[in-house]
Amino acid sequence: MTENKVPWRRLWTEAVVIVGSILLAFAIDAAWDRYQDERRLEEYIVALEGEFEEARLEMTAQLEDRAYQLAAVDSLVRTIRTGERSDRLWAWVDQLRFIYVFGPSQPAFESLSSSNGLDLLISSQLRFSLLRYGQAKEFLEVLSARELRLWEDLTEPYLLEHTDAVLYSGASMQSPPTSRFDSGAERLYSDRFFHNLLVRRRGRISGLLEMDRDVLANIDAVLEAIALPERGSM
Predict the structure, then answer these.
(1) What's the CA gap between 128 and 233, in Å, rounded?
(2) N or C: which end of the chain has fewer CB within 10 A?
(3) In whole angstroms, how large is the CA radius of gyration of the chain?
(4) Residues 102/141, Cβ–Cβ less than 8 Å
(5) At 24, is the secondary structure helix, strand, or coil?
(6) In sequence order, what are the beta bridge partners of 180?
(7) Helical ranges in the chain per DSSP H
(8) DSSP notation for 65-128
(9) Using one digit for the tens of pLDDT, what is the confidence trace for 112-146?
(10) Mind listing the pLDDT tens digit for each residue in 40-83?
């Protein structure tokens, strides 16, 4: 009677080959996934850098415009308080209608924020900087929207009623001044309500100016984190 021997060595070799092939396939898939993630991350970082460079230019210009507006309101308040007359009065009043709204195009940042994509970023500094920027930008948007409502509901109706103002309604809020006021300077000088309106407006502009600076500081922090040699490592 012939004894059938089990070919353990051959079976063991085949098992090792099969398991090795499976593990190799998993390793290849994992490596490909890592490559895709790294490529996607690099694309996001490049896009973010371009977006925040543009945002910095926009915010720098807005800061200059807001500072000029604040100086105009300061001049208005001082002129009314002292009673002095100035041929710059209407140019200063004209500055009241400008409502600056920071709204850069940032699809990469918005995509990361809305889809919890910030987890893709390895850099804790970059994640933190982007989160801080998003919070500051959102707060500035709220303040700007409130300022626009106050202009539409209070300041603009007052000027139209008390100064025979003719405002060019088709002009953008950020276009060069196009308003021209026909008369009513003396009423502005003597109207306590207008003076109080200016003082409150000045306080809000000062607050917005500080928020502009905060947003700009956060933009710089994001760009600094992007420029790190690690480009996002811990």
Answers:
(1) 13
(2) N
(3) 31
(4) yes
(5) helix
(6) 166
(7) 8-82, 89-94, 107-114, 124-150, 156-162, 185-190, 192-226
(8) HHHHHHHHHHHHHHHHHHT---TTHHHHHHGGG---------HHHHHHHHTTGGGG---HHHHH
(9) 887 666 666 667 888 899 999 999 999 999 999 99
(10) 778 888 899 999 999 999 999 999 999 999 999 998 888 888 87
Positive or negative, the CA dihedral 8, 10, 13, 18 is negative
Quote the pLDDT of residue 30. 63
Block residue for tokens 């989160």: 131
What type of residue is 72? Answer: A
Region of 184 please: left (phi>0), alpha (psi -120 to 50) or beta: left
Dihedral angle over CA of 212, 145, 104, 140, nearest 10: 30
- Token readout for 180 is 């021209």
Confidence (pLDDT) at 181: 43
Residues in the chain: 234
Encoding tokens for residue 156? 């603009």
165: β partners: 181
> What integer is the mean pLDDT of 193-201?
90
Residue 120, judged by CB atoms within 10 A of its CB (0-12, 13-18, 19+), counts as middle
